[in-house]
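User: Quick sanity check before I run a bigger batch. Here is a single chain. Can you write out its predicted 3D structure?
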Amino acid sequence: MNISIIGTGYVGLVTGTCLADFGLSVTCVDQDETKISLLNSGGVPIYEPNLAPLIKKNISAGRLTFTTNFEKVVKESKVIFIAVGTPPNDDGSANLAQIEEVAKQIALFINNYKIIVIKSTVPVGTTRKIKEIINQNQSVIAREQSDRSNPNLNRRTGVSPVYSIPFDLVSNPEFLREGSAVYDFTHTDKIECFDPLAIENFRRILSDLTYCQDEYETAEHCDILVIATEWNQFRNLDLLKIKKLLKTPILLDLRNLYEPAQVKELGFVY
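Assistant: Done. Predicted structure follows.
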């Protein structure tokens, strides 16, 4: 299973290294040639306890590589993690320029089905926006290629064929604590999950997770419920039922689907 990490900042580097240590084949890609050269020579651009020896171990084992070749990484990966920066703008909003550019590049080089995981910290609605960018740019590329290969046909019909290589998008923001990020990543509590669309694809890739039949089974006996996607069926949950199923009534709503005051009034930590 080939996995790529786009971005070798704090989140990307820790994520890629730890996934490699789990036995997966991981390639981290970054446009910063100096940083990639440093990593390939055994250096580490950030300090995080236990990270440097873990990088060295997995490079030696052949499970972890670093490159600036974006095209090769996208084409050879089954799962693509996006971990680029989203620094704040002057008004406090997230600057999405880097992640939007990554989406355009994925559209340019995607060659078969991919699972694209957004680990960057992004505002509500970004997943939908990234999906639109990838689809729109795939269509533009398809038209340009078709016009070059069949100019007479397209001029006659006025229509260029449009296609879209299928992909799934997953929102999986990372909350790593500096100083204990490696430990946190490699010593996670039991994770139960449910997604109405992508669950079968993830089951083939991450077999160690506990997969549930629906959102209510997912909540049963858990310490916290995390809403990480914006499916419509998650917008009108029976929150009283959810509260009874949880061991502790903690709701982490990463997509801002609910009004905080109403959820708190039901007795949740929100």
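The two ends are 37 Å apart (CA to CA).

User: Great, the batch can go ahead then.
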